[in-house]
Amino acid sequence: MTLTVPTWLTLARIALIPVLVVVYYLDARWSNLAATLVFVAASLTDWLDGWIARRYRLFSRFGAFLDPVADKLMVSTALVITVQHHHTVWMALWASIIIGREIAVSALREWMAELGQRAKVAVALVGKIKTIVQMVALGFLLYRAPVLGLPVFLIGEWLLAAAAVLTLWSGWEYLRAAWPVLRAGEAAHTAQHASEQERNV
Hints:
Blueprint: H1 5-24, H2 31-56, H3 61-85, H4 89-114, H5 125-143, H6 152-200
């Protein structure tokens, strides 16, 4: 298996996850800035590996599998450490919605892939907007400190709430697009099972 440049960038994003955690918990005045910079760097590699793959047609099955995994790992880690630092009901709720949706959509895509209909749950516009809002929110939450009197953390909280709403919306869009295929597949499976039982009688 040959590793392309986009795949190396994706692997680098995964390697930055423990760096984010360690830097975030350092007992230093600049730890919040360092953690934010690590998260921003990881987010930029997400954009960069996609751009390079499209620009130079450096696609691979392994890269296609690994890229969304790296994204989900980084976002989940940032959410967990943020909730640990600011453990309110609302923060935990937004984090649970976002992480839960990622798990559900990953399972849905895997199921659709088994039915040969993965394209039905391709990333939609609302999903891309959700990702942008989510990344900005997490950057603000990781930084935490006010800037020029602006309540950075509070802004991050509201943006995360908006990201959670967009998360539910995009999840519903994926499910709505996949539902006819899932119903047809379930009906075919039920008919096949009934036929097998009749033959065994």
